[in-house]
Amino acid sequence: MKQAIHFGGGNIGRGFIGELLVRSGYEVTFVDVAETLVDEINARHAYHIEVVGNEPKTIHVEHVKAINSNMNLEELLDAFVTADIVTTAIGPNILKFIAPNIAKGLARRVKKNEAPLNIIACENMVGGSTVLKNFVYEHLADDVKAKVDRCIGFPDAAVDRIVPIQHNEDPLLVKVEPFCEWDVDRTGVVGAEPQIEGLTWVDNLEAYIERKLFSVNTGHASIAYMAYLKGIEDIAAAMQDEEIVSFVRRVWAETSELLIEKYGFDREKHAAYIRTAEERFKNPHLSDAVTRVARGPKRKLGAKDRLVSPASQLIERGKKPEALATVIAAALRFDYADDPEAVEVQNYVKEHGLEKAITHFTEIPAGTELFDLILAKNAELKK
């Protein structure tokens, strides 16, 4: 069998990337530091995935094993020599911590095997593989870097699958939604593109990153902030509220116009993508607390993030993003006391006023069309 190394034995690793790799003929070695998890995988060499939704099903996944990188580093380094692909799903903040071991593994590999190898970071971030590559190169000797440049690819990826918060009696069981998407930039590949079921190789990854960000993430945030203002506690309940559903469809209408105009997405196919997103949020098995989805307003209000970026781009194209401006105003009113970022935003508003807060958190200049639109929408929300 082909050999895959996957960093991260958690729910995304087992319930998404690992399963697609096994389905595509790979034996998957999960790399983790959770001793109990590693031991359980090695005791069974298999686990189950439950797909939850209108058509539930159970998937049996086998041909798996695990390495504890804290206890069996030599085994991990040897695995790099024969690996056919390396993937990660560990969280953006952990990439720098696995980089030293990846660097050691690559140094051992290129001494013995110069066959092409691609390393794909499947993280909820932009340019994850490139970020990982930079961390790895910090730990490579110059002569090794030259070989790695020739043999090792770090193609960036965009991934999307909702894995709900869960507490299962079986420690290896993972519950996931039916939908999943894994897009990878073919321009970053070294050698032939690995053929993996469920993975789509694309020429313009930015288009797919923004499609996901401005559709799924923007929609999710929009539902959460508007639901919070109405006192609704979870996303599935919010999606039973006709006013909120109607509103998020207006948000999607705005972002859809931007994406279709900017990237040339087929209008009917994109409409189907939006309908799928709406059904995902209606799935009661995937419902999340409104306050958890809305958390981190400081980050979500960033100039390049899910709310301000599409609104700004629409303004540049001569369009008026009424719904997006409303969400931005609602995010600035998110005052959940248990969220440190929400507290920070509210304290800034109290101390400096809303107008300065808008520019401080969104980088939208005072007096611009979008700035004035947000102020107007805030006044409407007050009523």
Automatic annotation (TrEMBL):
GO terms for molecular function: mannitol-1-phosphate 5-dehydrogenase activity. It holds the Pfam family Mannitol_dh_C. The keyword Oxidoreductase applies. It catalyses: D-mannitol 1-phosphate + NAD(+) = beta-D-fructose 6-phosphate + NADH + H(+). One of its GO terms (cellular component) is cytosol. Its EC number is 1.1.1.17. Keywords: NAD, Oxidoreductase. It comes from the Bacteria. Residues 204-345 form the Mannitol dehydrogenase C-terminal domain. GO terms for biological process: mannitol catabolic process. Residues 3-198 form the Mannitol dehydrogenase N-terminal domain. The keyword Oxidoreductase applies. It is an enzyme of class 1 (oxidoreductase). PROSITE patterns: MANNITOL_DHGENASE (PS00974). Belongs to the mannitol dehydrogenase family. This is Mannitol-1-phosphate 5-dehydrogenase. The lineage of its organism: Bacteria, Bacillati, Bacillota, Negativicutes, Selenomonadales.
